[in-house]
């Protein structure tokens, strides 16, 4: 080989190391992608849940159950009706999962320093619970405006059908078109100021903090148990979370999704009721009724509908949250593993 050819060979000492993504960048990017994919799957179920939670009970409920709500929605609005208001949740899912994973993973090192827990040993569940609660608080703040607009869009079509049924035949076509998400945002800010976008924040905060603890800890406990099981079956190999199969990750994520909703579902019911009260009051022709706070709304639901009212829509919620949560954790962990594999 000539000296000229030798000079053209890459110098290992001069080679620049490939830049790696920071932990924060991975959390935001991977969490966003996982959230968007899961939201497209779960939105029809969420729409049914909100309509069951907020439907007027007098003179008779609109829907007898989840299947009836699905049937009537498709019958009256088509398949597209199941995705009514999906733009806001899609944006919200991106922000929610990015903030959840970002805060959860950023708070843990700080807590390790405070409680003097080495980074080489598994974090105790108490530490993870605090990190999960912090991530839930941040997500709750981010999500409240998104869910406010989403819930209002989801119940507007329900009230419009009743208005059409009550209106004379010759004026039914003159009923106004439903406002878009941006229109609702401007309307809310104009009527109640910026703070109006955080109506129902207490319910969202309670749900996200408590649910966040249940969500992350259930996934951590399930994956740790699976790692120990695989380790016992193959003692010669050192197992870690990255070695778990897609079924393992999806199963752990599905269990986490169910625990997230079952743990504090009444708070979500109260939040949805508070956020849709305006539309339902207009439907009841009592536009100037006084809005209730969190505990007053809780008491009103319990008084008028009992325990079943506080858990209305729980079945359909678990039906969508299990696969949705499975998608989130599966996509997030697979993207994280791929990034490590390719040195990103």
Automatic annotation (TrEMBL):
Membrane topology: Multi-pass membrane protein
Protein location: Mitochondrion membrane
Gene Ontology biological-process entries: mitochondrial L-ornithine transmembrane transport
This protein's name: Mitochondrial carrier
Record-stated family: Belongs to the mitochondrial carrier (TC 2.A.29) family.
Organism: Malassezia vespertilionis
Single Gene Ontology MF annotation: L-ornithine transmembrane transporter activity
Main location: mitochondrion
SUPFAM superfamilies: Mitochondrial carrier
Pfam families xref list: Mito_carr
């Amino acid at each position: 080989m000539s000296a000229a050819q030798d000079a053209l060979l890459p110098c290992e000492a001069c080679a620049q190391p490939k830049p790696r993504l920071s932990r924060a960048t991975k959390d935001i990017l991977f969490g966003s992608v996982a959230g968007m994919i899961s939201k497209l799957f779960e939105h029809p179920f969420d729409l049914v849940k909100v309509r069951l939670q907020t439907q007027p009970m007098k003179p008779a409920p609109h829907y007898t159950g989840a299947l009836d709500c699905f049937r009537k929605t498709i019958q009256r609005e088509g398949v597209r009706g199941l995705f009514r208001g999906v733009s806001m949740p899609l944006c919200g899912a991106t922000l929610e999962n990015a903030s959840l994973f970002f805060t959860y993973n950023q708070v843990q090192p700080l807590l390790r320093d405070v409680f003097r827990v080495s980074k080489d040993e598994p974090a105790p569940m108490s530490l993870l619970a605090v990190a999960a609660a912090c991530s839930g608080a941040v997500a709750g703040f981010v999500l409240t405006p998104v869910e406010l607009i989403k819930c209002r869009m989801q119940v507007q079509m329900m009230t419009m059908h009743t208005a059409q049924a009550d209106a004379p035949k010759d004026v039914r076509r003159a009923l106004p078109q439903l406002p878009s998400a941006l229109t609702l945002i401007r309307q809310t800010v104009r009527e109640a100021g910026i703070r109006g976008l955080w109506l129902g924040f207490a319910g969202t905060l309670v749900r996200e903090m408590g649910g966040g603890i249940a969500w992350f800890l259930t996934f951590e406990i399930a994956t740790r148990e699976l790692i120990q099981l695989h380790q016992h079956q193959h003692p010669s190999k050192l197992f870690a979370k990255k070695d778990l199969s897609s079924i393992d990750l999806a199963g752990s994520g599905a269990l986490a999704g169910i625990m997230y909703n079952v743990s504090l579902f009444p708070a979500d019911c109260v939040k949805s009721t508070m956020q849709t009260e305006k539309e339902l009051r207009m439907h009841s022709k009592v536009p100037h009724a006084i809005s209730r706070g969190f505990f007053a709304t809780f008491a009103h639901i319990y008084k008028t509908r009992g325990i079943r009212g506080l858990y209305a829509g729980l079945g359909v919620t678990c039906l969508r949250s299990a696969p949705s949560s499975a998608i989130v954790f599966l996509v997030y962990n697979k993207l994280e593993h791929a990034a490590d594999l390719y040195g990103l």
